[in-house]
Design goal:
mainly beta, four-stranded antiparallel β-sheet, 1 helix, globular
Length: 128
């Protein structure tokens, strides 16, 4: 079992920045690839970014590429999502998720169905 707790959400003006954190506990963090997803009101959950178990590979949705950066520190059992140049359309609840490190394909990591563990989410609101 892995427990995930997100933090760092809030209200920010368009063009601003936020840094989300996802702290993990339970089984060895390095056993898992990690992903960030988001869900806006009335919309389906969508992929934002993912990172391999050792941080060697990262993947991004086209909508956030160049603005968001995913990173992790296995010694701190934490994954981050640095979000810059935020837009109102980035408003959503953001979730982090974990999946076995054996899932390494970028295509697979973009799908929420492969993830085994999810956090409770943190709200990000970007005002125009």
């Amino acid at each position: 079992q892995v427990q995930l707790v997100e933090s760092g959400g809030g209200l920010v003006q368009a063009g601003g920045s936020l840094r989300l954190s996802c702290a993990a506990s339970g089984r060895a963090f390095s056993n898992y690839a990690m992903g960030w997803f988001r869900q806006a009101p009335g919309k389906e959950r969508e992929f934002v970014a993912a990172i391999s178990w050792n941080g060697g590979s990262t993947y991004y949705a086209d909508s956030v590429k160049g603005r968001f950066t995913i990173s992790r520190d296995n010694s701190k059992i934490t994954v981050w999502l640095q979000m810059n140049r935020l837009k109102p359309e980035d408003t959503a609840v953001y979730y982090c998720a974990a999946v076995s490190r054996t899932v390494y394909s970028g295509d697979l990591l973009r799908g929420d169905s492969v993830y085994d563990y999810w956090g409770q989410g943190t709200q990000v609101t970007v005002s125009s």
